[in-house]
Amino acid sequence: MKIETKVEKTYGYVDYGGSVDSDCREKCTDALVFLVVPLHGKWKVPIGYFFINKVTADQKKFLLTQAIELCFEAGLVVKAVTFDGCPANIAMAKKLGCDLNPNNLKTVFKVQNNEIAIFLDPAHMIKLVRNSFEHYREFKDAEGNNIKWNHIEMLHQLQEDEKFHAANKLRSEHLFFKKNIMKVKLATQLFSRSVSIALQFCKNTLKIAQFQEIDGTANMLLLLNDLFDILDSKVHGYGLKRALNAENSQVVLSKLEMCKSVLMNLTTNLKNKQVRLIDTPRFTGFLGLCICIESAKFLFNDLIKNQRVPYISFHRIS
């Protein structure tokens, strides 16, 4: 690998360090990095990196297993692995022993008889859900309530016309996000309590006719807001943003169960038929959040309930 500082270019060839067979003359496109992060602490340590190009699920499984075993040799306890939702990562999780069938989720695998949970990066998942919402335009929840992208567009247009924002951060960039599709805040500020309340305000207080059917949309925005708060919880947070512990576990776990139930039953219209979003081509964000929920519950039972740690800050895992 060489770096040209004058033109800010990096170039080189695929290199697995001799641990995996590969064509060493193939140009690399990415670096696969393994980073160790403590549940309690502020340090991060990269323990390995590989120059890759279209790495397979089998190769990723091999490298991840090696990384975990090296951590064990160093005396570390590995309880969770986080990665994004690319197809190779999902295939790797299945090869490790996870069952990602939405109706029978098993989000834990074993290495040397140690149980390890998988997390699909919540920040990536919330962006994928936002992308799906904008693409399909309309969902339905289990009660048949409409969840429409147009409701958010109407709120934005109303605020622009009135030159007044109802205590939310909704702007044009949240609706026309594709030029900044990687910015997490454009998704989290859209799926926010403040936007949900603004929609309800337009219906219940201002009594604007076109906002009379926004309940489904407002409820989903609030649900995703709460779910992301939990999956990004921190030690010094408040409410659902507070790290999971014995005191708040009943509220948090109940909220997680409710979120999973809603996500599993959201549908959209495909070819004149209502199809669950987790069964559509754009399933990853919804399934990924359900995986995070199951893994969060596992860590609570394994670590907090067994009094191995006093709390879990999911921000450290994401």
Task: Give a written overview of the molecule.
- It is built from ten helices and 13 strands.
- It is an alpha+beta fold and 318 residues long.
- The longest helix has 21 residues, at 284-304.
- The two termini are 29 Å apart.
- Helices cover 42% and strands 17% of the residues.
- This is THAP domain-containing protein 9.
- It comes from Arctia plantaginis (Wood tiger moth).
- InterPro entries: TNP-like_GBD, TNP-like_RNaseH_N.
- Residues 123-234 form the Transposable element P transposase-like GTP-binding insertion domain.
Number of helical runs?
10
Report on the biggest sheet.
3 strands, mixed
| Helix/strand structural class | alpha+beta
Low-confidence stretches: none
Q: Radius of gyration, rounded?
A: 22 Å
Strand order of the largest sheet: 5-7-6
Keywords:
318 residues, 17% strand, two-stranded antiparallel ribbon, TNP-like_RNaseH_N, 10 helices, 42% helix, TNP-like_GBD, alpha+beta, three-stranded mixed β-sheet
